[in-house]
Amino acid sequence: MEKTLNRIHPVSDPEATYFLQVSWEKDLGTGFDLLLSDCQCAWTGTVSEADISREAADIEMDREKYVEELRKALIAGEESAGKYNFVISRDEQNKACHFSYERNLKDGSFRLGSLKLQEVPSPAEVVKELIGYCLDSLGKLRAKTEHLQRENERLFSNWSDVERRLEKCVEAKEELEADLYSRFILVLNEKKAKIRNLQKLLSEAKESAVDAKCARDSIATTQMVIKRENNYDASTDEESENPARASLPSAPERRDSSLLGSPDVMDPAQRRKRRQRTAKPAGTGAKVA
Fold it and tell me: Which residues form a coiled coil (predicted)?
């Protein structure tokens, strides 16, 4: 069973202090028990699930919303201070107490619920129970506070470790960045030198190509000039040869003229007689000697 204990002040006597304990099983909407005490007298009562449904129907409010309003009025305590009013009226013998709770509005208030509480025969036992509940709650809160304190210390220690690790990571990151930057500079300089060399080679290749083209052009020009000169010389030789050929007679003519200009053919007998006549004076001269 869950319980809550709140301190309330009735509208009729704001200086008076009452302690209201609300206990329920699973959900406030299934019903709850009330215990009201001013440390001298005590009253108790029960609100059933049917009572809750009836009160919600009377004020024409959705049941779930009505249960939420009850939670804020009876359980929230200081969180809802000033938003809800409590009305407490006791009879002369304090045998019974009429307790009602209302929701404040701008123009007034409307009642959420009310019930008649019966006097508890032994108020001291009730006060004892309330004090025990307060001590138990205080012990739970203290244990929770200690647990939260230890958890906070653990988280602070983890945070310190994480902070130190983060600092180391930052230092390592900076060192790595510096190393990478130095390596990058070296690589960049090498690439720049390589690019300059390539540009130099490219310019030299372009110059060589231009020179080769100029040489080819000059050779072609020279060849063209030589060819033109050869053609001119050939044409001149042909012109000089043509008059010489024209002055020479033809082969039959040359043969005819050679035949005409040659001496007459002698008879073989005449040739022998001529040789003999020429040989005799030679022989005679030898004998005389």
Answer: 138-215
Collect all residues with Cβ–Cβ distance below 8 Å to 23 and sequence separation of at least 6: 1, 2, 3, 4, 32, 33, 35
Render each residue's pLDDT in the chain as its tens digit; 289 residues.
Answer: 788 888 888 888 888 888 888 888 888 888 888 888 888 888 888 888 888 888 888 888 888 998 898 888 888 766 666 788 888 888 777 678 888 888 888 777 778 888 888 888 888 888 888 888 888 888 988 999 999 999 999 999 999 999 999 999 999 999 999 999 999 999 999 999 999 999 999 999 988 888 888 888 888 888 888 888 777 666 666 665 555 454 445 444 444 444 444 444 455 555 555 655 554 444 444 333 2
Question: Three-state DSSP class for 176?
Answer: helix
DSSP string over 119-154: EPS-HHHHHHHHHHHHHHHHHHHHHHHHHHHHHHHH
- What is the C-alpha separation between 156 and 7, in angstroms, rounded? 36
Q: Would you list the DSSP string of 197-254?
A: HHHHHHHHHHHHHHHHHHHHHHHHHHHHHHHHHHHHHHHHHHHHHHHHHHHSPPHHHH
The verdict on pTM exceeding 0.90 is no
